[in-house]
Design a protein that fits this description.
This protein is mostly beta strands. Helix content is 0%, strand content 46%. The model has no long low-confidence stretch (mean pLDDT 95).
Length: 105
């Protein structure tokens, strides 16, 4: 089980986008996540008439290392750490380390 999953709200804790918040759109590999609106780069693309693609400068999100993001705790309104807990019914769930509440995602 991963500490940060697709759909989680995260805040960037290091890098040029430090302090920005966004939602995880995809998990890339074992150590990178794609966050909407974070770590954007401009890519110069050539037109491809076969695929009906226009050329120009395209802004796109690039993966960011999972160590540079922290999950957003809506109760405390701060970045938080995640722990794991096994419930009585055998389910393994994630919880916020600061207040012990479950992460619902």
């Amino acid at each position: 089980m991963r500490k940060i999953k697709k759909g989680d709200n995260v805040v960037v804790i290091a890098g040029r986008d430090k302090g920005k918040r966004g939602s995880v759109t995809a998990v890339v590999g074992a150590e990178h996540v794609l966050v909407a609106g974070i770590n954007q780069v401009k890519k110069h693309t050539r037109p491809n008439p076969m695929k009906n693609e226009q050329g120009g400068i395209v802004t796109r999100d690039t993966p960011i290392h999972v160590s540079n993001v922290a999950i957003w705790n809506p109760v405390t309104k701060k970045a938080d750490r995640v722990g794991f807990r096994v419930l009585d019914d055998g389910r393994k769930v994630r919880f916020f380390k600061s207040n012990g509440e479950l992460v619902n995602a």
